[in-house]
Each structure stands twice: as structure tokens, then as C-alpha cells.
Amino acid sequence: MYEGVAEGKPKEQWKLKSAAELLKLKICDMAMGSGAFLVQTCRYLAERLVEAWENAEKANPGKVVTAPEGTLSKSRPEECVIPKDADERLIVAQRIIADRCLYGVDKNPLAVEMAKLSLWLITLQKNRPFTFVDHALKCGDSLIGVSLEQLRYWNLDTRERVSLALIGENLRRDIEQIIELRRQIAAKPVITTEDQKHKEYLLTKAKAVANDLRDGCNLLVSSYFNNLPESEKEGLRQTLLTVFRDGASISEKDRRVLPDLEKLRPFHWELEFPEVFLPSPQPSPSGKGSKVTPRPEGEGTGARVGFDAIVGNPPFMGGQKITGALSTAYRDFLVKWIANDKRGSADLCAYFFLHAKQLLNINGGFGLIATNTIAQGDTREVALDQLIADSGVITRAVPTRKWSGIASLEVAYVWLRQGNWLGEFVLDDKIVDGITAFLTNLGKAIGNPHKLIANQSKSFQGSIVLGMGFVMTPEEIQALIEKDAKNKNVLFPYLNGEDLNSRPDQSPSRWVINFKDYPLDAEHDDLKKPKGRPYASDYPDCLKIVREKIKPERAKNNRKVYRDYWWQYGEKRPALYNAIANQKRVLVLCIVTQYFAPAFCPTGWVYAHRCCVFSLKNWYEYAILQSTIHECWARQYSSSLETRLNYSPSDCFETFPFPTSTANLEEIGDRYYNHRQNIMQTRQEGLTKTYNRFHNPDETAADIQQLRELHIEMDNAVAAAYGWQDLELSHGFHQTKQGLRFTISETARREVLDRLLELNHQRYAEEVAQGLHDKGKKKGKSGGKKKAQAESKNQDNDNGQLSLF
Questions:
Q1: Which pLDDT score is estimated for 776?
Q2: Main-chain dihedrals φ then ψ at residue 507, nearest 5 degrees
Q3: Exposed/middle/buried for 212, CB within 10 Å: 0-12, 13-18, 19+?
Q4: What φ, ψ does residue 571 adopt, rounded to 5°?
Q5: Which phi and psi angles does 643 have, rounded to 5°?
Q6: How far from 16 is each of 42, 86, 94, CA to CA, in Å?
Q7: What's the pLDDT score for residue 169?
Q8: d(CA 3, CA 15)
Q9: Model confidence over 698-732: pLDDT tens digits?
Q10: Residue-by-residue DSSP string for 477-522
């Protein structure tokens, strides 16, 4: 809207662009719903357009504006003056903006009609028909489609360019005609119902010209949406090419593997809005007509190509749900053709962010709302990391804010611009030096942390039992053991995250049947294990329970291994139980938790999948992990659920650079932990309630005060172990993303993160220099088959079971 913003000039030096320049802007909401963002955009742009008209009139006293572009009156009878009345002038401006500047797409046809109604209501003018917006608000899936260049080469990878002369001349001629028709639609104001009908006629004519091209684009998309083997996909693609070029019919066999286009609703941006994405027609060398050449992917034209801005609130959907809800082929399309083959369990909104940038012109930008996981884990790596690496600059952001609707959700606001940016960076309404992909202030250390070999094979997610039929009450366990004492060999205490955080002694409230990796019986022992190998059938009482409660459930599962091995856990986590087999205790953390509070638990238990188990047993290791130093790192590099931490061992434990000097941490770790245990036993409260008190400034009880003092002592000791005696942590009650917390100051938190990231990069470089990250090199493994067998045998001894029996 203004000159001077991107150049970093002070606000008083910003200059509003002319009316003619403003009306060239193209703004889109690619998941518009009922059009709320477009309505607000219309209001804002119209106010600026009125201001531009006023600027033109002030610069030319006595003159009035007679055309939308700010043309001044020449006192001719045929002139149609823009109304001087402020309200009337604003309505006229809104109608012109809706005619020329706004675009929207949504997959839901009803949403498209609602968006039209929203714009009609805001642009309603007495004695005038509705604003014509059918050409600009369309139905389709914004993420699924092809470019005209891809159509031309009949391949989504245009680098191959196999069929150079596919439809070049026809494509050029048709696109020229469509662009001209759509320009006439945008330029013609709707004064009478006849104007409205004429626009409808022009749009119908443009659709007719585009119909064959749309069919071709749909066929090309369809060739990528099937589950055929790779060896057969190219054959289908060539068959569909023949259908498109020669008008051949599709065989019934091919039709069965093609997607339902009514359900998929592909949207081909360049074909639907060619005036936005293709250069202006240029006069031909002969002087006859004009020429439009479809832009090859990745090639600049020097002309404005793409939207100036994209706004909106694209849909959220967890990465694990995309395949089930939208199909494997859908997700594969997103990963390969939008995310550049960057894989990961990214939220659906990540692909809208990536595609938004692809739809912008070279100086364009977007402002989008996303779930706050956009800056976390795989979603960040797929979206923001790639956007920044591809010359995107995040100019403004709100990392997390409670959703204003009824859903319990935390969202983020992200503004991104392509190319150079010399203006201010605003994070959480505060001016900062820059904004990272984590939506944090740009610190001294730059980049993402690396996984360290030193931390490998020390942190694990618990078992996924996959069936509540395995889980039993202590009374049921007692009955099984009384029936046959041998049953005790496959019965274990079962610790889940709720028990860990709510019970004063972190003890399991339930037990679980665990056949580990035992074959069902000798008949099913395909591996021919040595004589004496346990079988599930050796415990008929327990097997009967699992057969009745688990087998029918597993028979419906999509994964063959889950169906075939119904008596075993879905994910047994042998690496976890082998790693801790020779230890007496381990540290356990609830993965999704309000407070970061690991606790020691005995081995010999089965840990649920919502538990993170660390094969750490020493007090100094506990002190480091429990310290605010590690918690800052964990909250920075893990994702979140609402305001709760969703701890990711691979992202924040395997990357965490531990201090090398730990001698002074044993004693403080012991004192802190045992004081916390005494509080919980005395009050009969779990970890969550204890830390509710810890972080409550109104809580002044002596035992909680002492816990805070011990936490300060522990944090200072950990900082000293890093050699950071110069670092002032400034403990106290501070506002954080999680609310009011007793923690270190925001300045200290940023400094801690900077120093840890720098140390991570240093440690990683040292490991690379030692060849530890060389591909194919075995890392972090020790022992062999005999050791694994010995560790497995140790697990059978139930050394860590509760003393219930």
C-alpha cells in the first residue's frame, strides 16, 4: 500500500501509492470460508483508495476525481464524478475494490456462496445491482492443481520437458482470449442490471474457452492420484495424454484407478486467474494482435506475476490425520509438489503456507493464522524453515495466542514477505532484531540444532500396547496369580502419564499383561528359537484374556503385523527395555505435561506411550534435566498442545548439549528431589498440584518457598557447570507463554538458548570431525545377540515390580 515501509523509512515518511497503483493490487484468501478476511480487506483497501483520491484532489485544488484511477476532472459534460459525500464515496470505493482487487477460493461450494453474500452486503449500494464477484470467488482445493507450464509438458516436473510441442500454439491463443475477457469483466463497473448480465456473458464465454484446458489439467492431476506401482504410472499418464489430445475414451480399467474429481475438486490457479499469474499480453512483432507465453516454472519475466498479498486462516489438521482423512495419494502430492519432498508429520496448514508463497509475486507477502505448531517440530521444518531458506522473511509474528472461538486451541499469526526487507521486525508487538522460524527473536546463534551422537539411545517413548484388554486392575492381577503363580512372569505394573503426574509416589494404578516378543506357541515359532524359549501359550489364563479382548479388535486394524501378532503390543519398544535392563531406576517424564517434572521410577515396569523414559540414573543427570536450563531448551524445540509441553526426545534431548563438568551437581540434585518427594508425601499431592503451588505467587508455605530456593540453587549450579558464572538468571515470577511462572527472566532465557545452540553446533562439528556422522557408520550400538538375550532374561526376573505381592 505504501512506499517506504519495506525500505525501512520512518512511518511519517511512508507515502500512500496512487489510486491507479492501488487498483493494480491483487489480494487473495486461498481458504476463504464465508469471506471474513476478504470483507475486512475490502474495507481497508477502500479506505486507502478514498485517501488516494483525496490526495490527488488536494494536490490539485478545484479539481475532483472522475475515475477510479484518480483521473481528475477536465470539466467535460460526459464525465461521471466520484461522489463527494464521504459515505457514498466509501461505498463506491468498496465496489471498485471488490471488482478489481479481491480473489478467493474454497473447497466448499456453500462457503463460496456465503463469501459472495458477505461481499454483496458490504458493497450494497442503493439503486445498484450486486457487485459481480463470480469471476474472482471460486470453488476448488487450493492445494491440488497444475500450472499451464506443467500442462504444456504433461508432467509436474517441468525440468524433464519431454513433449515440448504438446499444445503450445493452442494454449497461447486460448489464454490470450481468456485474459482479455477477464480484463473486460474487471474493468466494467456494474451500474445497471444490463451491466451485470454482460459480465455474466463474458464470464460464460471465458469458461467455455477454458473448458478443454481445464479437462486437460484435471486429467494430468488424475494421473498422479492413484495407488498404481511406479512402473505403471507413466503408462497411465501417456494414456490420459492421448485422451486429452485425441479425444479418446477412458477405459473402464483406467477409470477405476482415477480419483473422484467431484470430491477432489482440483484448482488450477493460472487457468482460473490468468490475469494474475501471466505477463501482460505484448504486441506481436508483426503488429497483429498480442502474444502471451506461459511462464516456465522458476523463470522470472520481469512483469508482475502472482498475488501481491495472501491473507486468511487456512484449515488445521494434524499430520498424522491427513492420510486417513484425505488419502495417501493426497498427502504424497502435498509432500512432493508443494513441500519439495520434505517429509515429516506436518500439520495441513504448513502446506498452505508453502503454497501461499508459491502464489506470490516477487515482492509479495502473506499474513496467515495457523496452529501454534507452525513454529514447532515437523510442521516448522516443512514450512517455516523452507520458506526462510527460500528468501522468505518473517517480518511480524505472534507465536502463540488463545483462539478466540470455542475450541481449546493456541494459534500463531505469521506475516512473511518475499525478498529484501529493511523495515521493522515485530514479535509479540515488540520491535526485535529479526524473527526466526521458531517465531523467536533472532539471537546470536543462527540455525537449527543438530542431533548429537553423545545423546543417542538414551531417551525413549514408552510402549504402545494397542488394546486396553491388556490392562488390568490390581484385584484382577491378584486373582490371576492366585490361580497360577506362573502368571506373574507376564504381569507388570503399568505406568502412564496420569499416574506419574497425579499420584504422590508416582506408582502405577494398573497392571498389564506383557508377552513381550514371545511367539504364540511352538507351531508359530518361525524363528526356531532355542529350547526353553517362552511362548504366550505357556500362560493360558492370560492368553485367554488377550484372545477374547484384543484379537477381535486387532482383526480390524489396517496393519498386517498388528493383526497377525495380536497377543503382542503394537509397539514393544525393545530398545527401551534393553537399554534399562541392568539399571535399578530410570527417569520418566510425562510427554504431554503442564510442568516439566521428571521423576525416578524403578525398572521392571511397563511404561505407557505417553511416558518418555531416559536411561539416566544419577543425581547430576536429574539436576541437569530438571533445571530451567533444559526446560527452556525443551520448550523451544518441542511442540505443544494448547500451553502444555509436548516433549519430543528426538528434537530436544538428542540435541541438548550437556555440560562436561558435573561434580557439583550430585548433591543439589539429591536435595531438590528428596525435598520435592517429602512435600508430595506430606501433602498427598502429585507433581501437577505441587507445581501449581510452586508457580503460584500467593503460595507462601515454607516447604514451597524452600523448593523455589533449591530450584534457584540447582539452576545456578547447572549454569556454573557450563562455565556461565557471568549469566544473571534473575529468578522470579515472570509472564511466559504458559502464563505466570516462577522461572528465569526472558532476557536470561534468550541468552541461555543462544549459548546452548552455539554449544550444540560446536559439539556437532566435533563429532563430524571425528567421523561419527558418516553415513553407514554404526553409531551408539554396543554388545550383540548374547548381550541382548541376557538383557531380555533380566527383564523376565521382575526385579522392579511393586511389592503388592
A1: 59
A2: -90, 150
A3: middle
A4: -130, 110
A5: -105, 5
A6: 17, 19, 18
A7: 63
A8: 5
A9: 999 999 999 999 999 999 999 999 999 999 999 99
A10: HHHHHHH-GGGGGGEEEEE-HHHHHHSTT---SEEEE--TT--SSG
pLDDT of residue 113: 95
Residues in a beta bridge with 2: 16
Structure confidence at residue 304 (pLDDT): 54
775: cell is: 553415513
Task: Please list the residues that pair with 732 across neighbouring strands.
Answer: 743
* Residue-wise pLDDT tens digits, 388-421: 999 999 999 999 888 887 777 889 999 999 988 9
Q: What pLDDT, on a 0 to 100 scale, did the predictor assign at position 293?
A: 44
Cβ-Cβ contacts under 8 Å for 245 (sequence gap 6 or more) = 166, 167
User: Rounded to the nearest 5 degrees, what angle is found at the Cα of 122, between the Cα atoms of 119 and 124?
Assistant: 100
Contact present, 248 and 125 (Cβ < 8 Å): no
> Strand 732-736 to strand 510-513: parallel, antiparallel, or no bridges (unpaired)?
unpaired
Q: Do residues 38 and 102 make contact, with C-beta atoms less than 8 angstroms apart?
A: yes
The helix or strand, by DSSP H or E, that contains position 418, with its residue range, turns out to be strand 410-418
Q: How far apart are the first and last CA of the chain?
A: 75
pLDDT at 732: 96
Residues 6+ apart with CB under 8 A from 355: 30, 142, 143, 338
pLDDT at residue number 67:
82
Which residues, at least 6 apart from 332, have a Cβ–Cβ distance to it below 8 Å? Answer: none
CB 132 within 8 A of CB 99: yes
The b-or-e profile of 226-263 (16+ CB within 10 A means b, else e) is: beeeeeeeeebbebbbebbeeeeeeeeebeeebbeeee
**HEC states along 33-77?**
CCCHHHHHHHHHHHHHHHHHHHHHHHHCCCCCECCCCCCECCCCC
Rg (CA), the chain: 32
Q: Which residue is listed with cell 484372545?
A: 547
Q: Which residues of the chain have pLDDT under 50?
A: 165, 283-303, 778-805
In this structure, what C-alpha cell is assigned to residue 529? 528359537
